[in-house]
From TrEMBL:
Subcellular location: Cell membrane
The organism of origin for this protein: Paenibacillus foliorum
Residue ranges occupied by any ABC transporter domain in the UniProt entry: 335-569
The protein's name: ATP-binding cassette domain-containing protein
Membrane topology qualifier: Multi-pass membrane protein
Ranges for domain Cyclic nucleotide-binding: 595-698
Assigned keywords, A-Z: Activator, ATP-binding, Membrane, Nucleotide-binding, Transmembrane, Transmembrane helix, Transport
GO molecular function, one term: ATP binding
UniProt cross-references to CDD domains, sorted A to Z: ABC_6TM_exporters, CAP_ED
Pfam families: ABC_membrane (PF00664), ABC_tran (PF00005), cNMP_binding (PF00027)
GO cellular component term, pick one: plasma membrane
Length: 713
């Protein structure tokens, strides 16, 4: 709590003049509030009892003057403090937001979004509320001190009694203060957890609906809320107890001093005016104590809020500019990974001894199965993370010796799902180069081949793209993102699965645009779709964090039994119509599926005609675990996740399948329930074969039935 006071005081001290004026104004108000009850003594003892009318007039005039001065100064103080208080609060908002911009990527994987938002929504607001109450807090505390001093001036024995009794009012805060603070801190943490749950739930609505998880999530939320209720009731009760015990203390104190004061006045040790003034001051003292106890919960909440805000402000970015770092002059020669070892956590090893060189002006592609480390390479190239061992070098300079700003200003990046901000198309493109003129934005849009579309919109470049760019199609969003990446004319262009989430026709069109744009630059592309990497100068095939193979497309195809060759065979053999609605599969390709491997070409040719094409959007459930199976699926393009229920009935991801993978082959032979749920992660195009068609065909070749039965066992 002391550190909270220290932080608040240092915030005020940044505005010394305003703080001094504020304190001066408070002193005038304080003088008035103390003088008012004391005036009874002067009016009764000096004017009414001795019948001194002139004294009465003077005293009343002084009272009116001080009252007027207090009102005017009070108004001035309100105005000034409103400005000062909001400035201090907005300083905290600014510091916190600035901190978020500086923290490294790992922080965002460690801390939940809801927790961060809650530091703005709950914690900063409780600090804000308390800061606005600071004048009352100061008036109450200083008033308490001044009133007690005046009591001594009136009758020191009685005042001593009051002071000895004063701790009675403080027993509550002393005994329950820490408990109330702990309860308030836990409550704030739980508020942050709830914010995280709600935020995640809103984003996950398609999955929740697809899996029918509404009741499960309502039950889980009920558990959370039950915990919240307990914490909230504990926190409120601690505050009530502090309030109640303080009021009881004040009541006792008043009773004691009024009894003793009356006895003293009865025996002539105290004038009637002093007794009245004493009682009036005691009453105002009890108001002050009540105000302090009313402020105590706000103070406690602000203290725990400040603790959480400080925690965030004290976070240090794991990747930051080194003091000796210099600016990367225009990228000229090559990017190098030298024996790089990296893990997201100390226990993990996600890249192992990676050494490679990407010369300027070349096209490097990283391919490999899901989880093989492709995006991790990009994370190190962008210096979102630092390697544990080894180094990443640009033009021979270790990335740690280069300022982050100069490094990233040379790079343009397009992600799989590009985030567009809720503003105009013009602003979204300009984010790539904030100082760009309108002409530069239009030029970038032309290069990304989206200018004509933008001009066809009623508001043209001023069109609002909606939340996350939701008013544009996936392909249009990607083109805006491409324009945003190239507007800065980057020396290095990174494509992180830039076209994987698009339908075939859009992907083909955007690939044409990219091909043109990448001809003159250093391009680093990450993709699981090998056709997108075919023209790369060097393809790196990653497997479990290591480079398993590297070379040009031709060289890799020549490696017999190589991973690339196998993946290539798996992903080719399908011919997709231009609109993406019809896929032809070759007999040769069908032969690669174990279930068809013993069939001859003419038979496979027949089967190939019975395959239907099915397209699904992202986030759709294709198959539910337990449903009866009647189809064999082949993924022509796209990614799906395979989910299985564990013993608690919760769906767990067991695999990710992509282009060329297949599932459900048993369904061609038997009607048994599906053993897993299949959910799309990107738009997916399948070819499917119905059991009834297959069974009809296979009846014509009886010996195959027995072979297949044997295989399926
Ligand atoms: N932030 C993270 N914290 C911990 N582990 C992570 C993190 N990001 C990725 N990983 C793990 O690192 C490994 C490599 O992940 P990476 O994203 O580089 O794979 P990828 O080849 O790009 O896969 P995909 O094609 O599915 O995107 C995976 O095992 C993944 O689970």
């Amino acid at each position: 709590m002391l550190s909270f006071v220290r932080h608040i005081v240092s915030s005020f001290l940044q505005y010394k003049l305003q703080t001094t004026l504020l304190l001066a104004a408070l002193l005038v108000e304080l003088a008035y509030e103390t003088f008012m009850p004391l005036s009874f003594k002067f009016i009764i003892d000096m004017a009414i009892v001795p019948h001194q009318y002139s004294y009465l007039v003077v005293i009343l005039c002084i009272m009116v003057f001080i009252a007027l001065a207090s009102v005017i100064i009070g108004l001035y103080r309100d105005r000034m403090f409103a400005g000062l208080g909001s400035r201090i609060v907005t300083d905290y908002y600014r510091q916190l937001f600035g901190k978020l911009q500086n923290l490294s990527t790992d922080f965002y994987h460690r801390i939940n979004g809801g927790d961060i938002v809650s530091r703005f929504n709950n914690d900063l607001i409780s600090i804000d509320t308390f800061i606005m109450l600071i004048p009352y807090a100061l008036l109450s505390i200083l008033g308490l001190i001044l009133n007690v001093t005046v009591l001594f001036f009136l009758q020191w024995q009685l005042a001593l009694l009051a002071v000895i009794g004063l701790p009675l009012c403080l027993i509550g805060p002393k005994l329950f203060g820490q408990k109330a603070y702990d309860a308030s801190y836990m409550l704030k943490e739980e508020q942050a957890n709830i914010a995280t749950v709600v935020q995640e739930n809103v984003s996950a609505q398609p999955v929740i609906k697809a899996f029918g998880l509404q009741q499960l999530f309502i039950r889980r939320f009920d558990d959370r809320i039950a915990n919240y209720r307990t914490l909230s009731s504990r926190s409120s009760f601690s505050n009530f107890v502090i309030d109640r015990t303080t009021n009881m203390g004040t009541m006792l104190l008043n009773l004691m001093t009024i009894c003793a004061g009356s006895v003293l006045a009865f025996f002539g040790f105290l004038s009637v005016g002093s007794l009245l003034a004493f009682s009036a001051i005691l009453i105002s003292l009890s108001y002050l104590v009540a105000a302090i106890t009313w402020l105590a919960p706000q103070f406690i909440q602000a203290t725990s809020g400040m603790q959480r805000v400080r925690e965030l402000l004290d976070e240090q970015p794991s990747v930051a500019d080194n003091e000796m770092a210099s600016s990367l002059q225009h990228f000229e020669r090559e990017i190098e990974f030298r024996n790089v070892i990296f893990g997201y956590t100390p226990e993990q090893r996600n890249l192992n001894s990676i050494s490679l060189t990407i010369p300027k002006g070349t096209y490097a592609a990283f391919v490999g199965a899901s989880g093989s480390g492709k995006s991790t390479i990009i994370n190190l190239l962008m210096r979102f993370y630092d390697p544990q061992q080894g180094s990443v070098l640009y033009d021979g300079t270790n990335i740690r010796e280069i300022t982050l700003q100069s490094l990233r200003s040379q790079i343009g990046i397009v992600f799989q799902e590009s985030f567009l901000f809720r503003s105009s198309i013009m602003e979204n493109i300009r984010l790539g180069k904030p100082e760009a003129s309108d002409e530069e934005v239009i030029h970038a849009a032309r290069s990304a081949e989206i200018h004509d579309f933008i001009m066809s919109l009623p508001d043209g470049y001023e069109t609002d793209v909606g939340e996350r760019g939701g008013r544009l199609s996936g392909g249009q969003r990607q083109r805006v993102a491409i324009a945003r990446a190239i507007i800065r004319n980057p020396a290095i262009l990174i494509l992180d699965e830039a076209t994987s989430a698009l339908d075939p026709a859009t992907e083909a069109a955007i690939n044409m645009t990219l091909k043109r744009l990448t001809a003159t630059r250093t391009v680093i592309s990450v993709t699981h779709r090998l056709a997108s990497a075919e023209h790369a100068d060097c393809i790196y095939v990653l497997h479990q964090g290591e480079i398993a193979e590297l070379g040009s497309h031709q060289q890799l195809l020549e490696l017999s039994g190589g991973r690339y060759k196998q993946s290539w065979q798996k992903q080719t053999g399908f011919e997709i119509s231009e609109d993406g609605y019809h896929v032809e599969v070759s007999a040769e390709r069908l032969k690669l599926f174990p279930i068809f491997s013993d069939m001859d070409d003419s038979f496979l040719q027949k089967i190939s005609h019975f395959f239907a094409t099915e397209s699904y959007a992202k986030d759709r459930t294709i198959i539910h675990e337990g449903d009866s199976g009647d189809k064999f699926y082949v993924i022509v393009r796209g990614k799906v996740e395979v989910l299985k229920k564990d013993e608690f009935g919760e769906s767990k991801r067991v695999a990710i399948l992509s282009d060329g993978d297949f599932f459900g082959e048993v369904a061609l032979l038997h009607n048994i329930p599906r053993t897993a749920t299949i959910h799309t992660q990107t738009p997916v195009v399948f070819i499917t074969l119905q059991r009834e068609f297959f069974q009809d065909l296979i009846k014509q070749v009886p010996h195959l039935t027995s072979i297949m039965e044997a295989r399926s066992k």
